[in-house]
Recover the amino acids of this structure.
């Protein structure tokens, strides 16, 4: 490899083939080998924020650390981009390969000092144990790649050992990726809207825009099945742009058909990948200008993890607020951000995660967390929304605690634009009251 000096993809494949052949023909009793497929998490963010020269230096530094912890005779290679592989010769079993993966992850947690920047990276690792009598090089690499995908799907910064059920999920992922690339152009992605309700009056005061995939064969595919795939492939960028444009246009259309009606707020989820994309602020500003939507009616929802993305993400949030757009932290309490970050983060509101709402009034810990969150938000003059409200008891408890707005299946499931428009033009409050009475 011209950048790192490690073996490249072709040389690694050849060494893996030789290792398999040697054990199959000459020394089958000497043990097995393991392949570790390593991918740096969110490496694109580093390239986008610090530049490709720094990104290249980081790849070289990662390569050096890999080599420093391997045994003599093992092979580290760079397949391309931020993907590395390791061939461990003669391992006693899966536990030995897992220990090596653990050492790799631990070594990467030590910051890299590059061009005046202190950079901390994490990696995801997939492990496959080769069987010399049956496996081919491509089989082992595919298995390790499938395990890598599982590691990323379970939160990154970790490793997973391959097992056969992963192949089914891997094929499903490949199939979905190909279909997802066509879904936008074929009009299969649609935006649904879940009402955000004033808990005292039951008036609809806003909506959250939520993407749905109306698959021609599989029906409505839940976002949890395709959004992680969209994040990993970069498709979240065009999908996110589609949601924002569609939702802003829909809000303006509701204004047009009921000129004297409630001026709803609009919440749209934004991923870290969107936020770190150059030109994101300009894109949002253009959508607002073209649709005529007042900036103060748009809230962009981010996760707590965005706070840890670094100065570039915070600068983007500040620029969005300068435009007049509101910033809300979604699923508050489920991340790992320090409360100290909130002194510098431009945030207007918090959404209490449904996991805590589920236990409200039933579990002492959940009730305490919700109460503390409300007090914290009040001290910083932030709005609070309870999400995932499914029972009248939860709604009443949130009211008693001073939460002014909420959403959840008790009030309304996400529905299409036409259905929500009918709710807004009819006696929407009466419909919501009837649901509460039925509950």
């Amino acid at each position: 490899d011209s950048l790192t000096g490690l073996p490249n993809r072709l040389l690694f494949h050849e060494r893996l083939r030789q290792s398999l052949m040697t054990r199959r023909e000459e020394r089958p009793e000497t043990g097995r080998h393991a392949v570790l497929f390593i991918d740096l998490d969110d490496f694109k963010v580093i390239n986008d924020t610090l530049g490709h020269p720094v990104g290249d230096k980081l790849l070289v530094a990662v390569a050096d650390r890999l080599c420093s912890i391997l045994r003599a005779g093992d092979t580290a290679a760079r397949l391309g981009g931020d993907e590395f592989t390791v061939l461990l010769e003669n391992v006693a079993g899966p536990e030995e390969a897992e220990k090596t993966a653990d050492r790799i992850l631990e070594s990467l947690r030590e910051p890299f000092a590059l061009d005046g920047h202190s950079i901390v990276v994490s990696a995801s690792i997939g492990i496959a144990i080769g069987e010399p009598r049956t496996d081919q090089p491509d089989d082992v690499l595919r298995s390790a790649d499938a395990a890598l995908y599982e590691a990323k799907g379970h939160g990154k910064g970790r490793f997973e050992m391959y097992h056969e059920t992963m192949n089914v999920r891997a094929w499903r992922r490949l199939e979905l990726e190909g279909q997802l690339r066509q879904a936008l152009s074929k009009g299969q992605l649609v935006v649904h809207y879940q009402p955000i309700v004033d808990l005292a009056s039951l008036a609809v005061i806003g909506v959250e825009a939520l993407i749905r995939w109306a698959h021609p064969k599989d029906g409505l595919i839940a976002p949890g099945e395709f959004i992680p795939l969209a994040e990993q492939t970069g498709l979240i960028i065009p999908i996110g742009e589609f949601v924002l444009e569609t939702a802003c246009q829909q809000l303006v259309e509701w204004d047009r058909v009921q000129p004297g009606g409630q001026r709803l707020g609009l919440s749209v989820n934004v991923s870290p990948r969107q936020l770190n994309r150059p030109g994101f602020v300009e894109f949002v500003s253009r959508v607002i200008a073209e649709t005529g939507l007042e900036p103060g009616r748009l809230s962009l929802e981010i996760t707590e993890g965005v706070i840890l993305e670094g100065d570039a993400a915070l600068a983007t949030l500040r620029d969005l607020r300068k435009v007049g757009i509101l910033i809300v932290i979604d699923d508050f309490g489920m991340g790992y951000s320090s409360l100290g970050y909130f002194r510098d983060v431009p945030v207007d509101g918090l959404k209490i995660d449904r996991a805590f709402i589920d236990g409200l009034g039933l579990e002492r810990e959940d009730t305490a967390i919700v109460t503390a969150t409300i007090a914290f938000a009040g001290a910083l003059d932030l709005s609070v929304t309870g999400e995932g409200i499914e029972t009248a008891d939860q709604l009443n408890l949130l009211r008693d605690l001073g939460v002014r707005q909420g959403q959840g299946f008790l009030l309304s499931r996400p529905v299409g634009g036409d259905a929500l428009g009918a709710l807004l033009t009819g006696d929407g409050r009466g419909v919501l009251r009837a649901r509460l009475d039925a509950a």
Summary: The mean pLDDT is 86. The chain is about 45% helix and 20% strand. The first strand starts at residue 32 and ends at 40. The two ends are 64 Å apart (CA to CA).
